[in-house]
Amino acid sequence: MKVGILTFPKSASFGASLQMVALYKALELLGCDVEAINYWNDYMRLEKHVHSYTGSIKNDVKRVLRKIIYHKGIRRFRNFENSIKLYPSKYISTEKELKILSSRYDVMVCGSDQVWNPDITGSDYNYFFKFCDDNNKKYSYAPSFGVDELSEKDAKEIAPLLKQFKGLSVREKQGAELINRLTGQAAHVVLDPTLLLDKTEWQSMQKPVSCKCKNYILYFTVVGSKTLNEFAQDLSKKTGCEIVYVGGRFLDSLFSKNNIMKNIGPEEWLYLVSNARYVVTNSFHGTAFSINLEKEFFVELSSFTNTRLINIVDMFELNDRVIINGKNINIDKKIDYVSVKYKLEIEQKQSFDYLKTMIDTIAAKT
Is the CB of residue 271 less than 8 Å from the CB of residue 244? Predict the structure, then answer.
């Protein structure tokens, strides 16, 4: 069975890249011939989802500077992507090209990551398979809207497209509730693909990175936070661990004397998470990998990641790891990973069952 995954190739985001590879490998484990569809729309290619984009020279300069400064890291992301099959080899960016491509697959899977977030995709409804005429091919696996509500325009366009899906699943219960409001239909809540692969499989992918800190706190952010930084500093003083920084504003890496890891790829990032004593983050995937790799971690909720982070800490009953107003009283408390692993195995089974049902349904018709 030939499966095409519609997600975010070409992304220099650790979460986006790792979730794509994870879903690819999970489907391979189930016996599928898998390809990631090499679709990269112009809105995302020009990083309009990163900047408050006005088409200004300033934003164009920022984009070019980032690519120059981080060219080694970007190359590492591309090399990591080479571990899977991307089709076609040269990216496509139009609905017409996708429409031609759709006949190539027995089934197409949309997801995961925030492929249903209009702010990130530029309201690209191709991520809801607008281009595909065969509704029996349309499935989703763990996409995230990233928002609690859609604009009136987006809701009007998206609702009928969702109704055409043969199988619907999402990453968060908030997404399932949004689908139910839009369509009256129920959607499965499944694990982010990165949680489908176990700890040993992720560790087999990691690559060592030169880091002078041997006993460290990994500080990984997707958005700057003064209170999160203060918490990490306090944790460093209490534990004697140095802080290793990943993420944040790219200009900070030029002028800071801190232990900032730049130009690393997904494999090096996995190494840093796996070998950290603590992880301090406001990232969904920073949290997910901390759980999967059984790290002591603390997470701060941020305005645009709240639903995703709340969902994952609720799922594994890890609310005591949440930083509130820069504080957490559980610094000395260890996570009970025996209990967490038990919950994870239950969720993994349910998520793989969804994928197996999808495959069996299609196989019965081919």
Answer: no
CA angle, corner 23, sides to 147 and 46, nearest 5? 55
pLDDT digits (tens, 9 = 90+) for 228-258: 999 999 999 999 999 999 976 544 444 445 6
User: pLDDT tens across 141-162, in order?
Assistant: 999 998 888 999 999 999 999 9
Torsion of CA 26, 144, 277, 263, to 10 degrees: 90
Whole-number Å distance between alpha carbons of 222 and 28: 30
pTM more than 0.85:
yes
CA distances, 48 to each of 11, 53, 111, 304, 316 (Å): 13, 5, 21, 17, 35
Q: DSSP assignment of 301-314, as one string?
A: --TTTHHHHHHHHH
Which residue, chain included where needed, has tokens 């299609």? 362
With residue 110 as reference, give the H or E element that holds it: strand 107-110
Beta-carbon neighbour count of residue 184 at 10 Å?
Answer: 9
| Length reported for the chain | 366
| Start-end of H helices in the chain | 14-29, 42-45, 57-69, 71-81, 95-101, 118-121, 152-163, 173-183, 199-205, 226-239, 252-255, 266-275, 284-292, 306-315, 337-363
Q: Alpha-carbon distance 133 to 103, whole Å?
A: 10
Distance CA 237, CA 135 (A): 57
How many Å apart are CA 185 and CA 334, to the nearest integer?
A: 40
**CA 61 to CA 116: how far, in whole Å?**
28
- Provide the sign of the torsion angle of the four alpha carbons 42, 47, 53, 55, taken in this order: negative
CA distance 181 to 174: 11
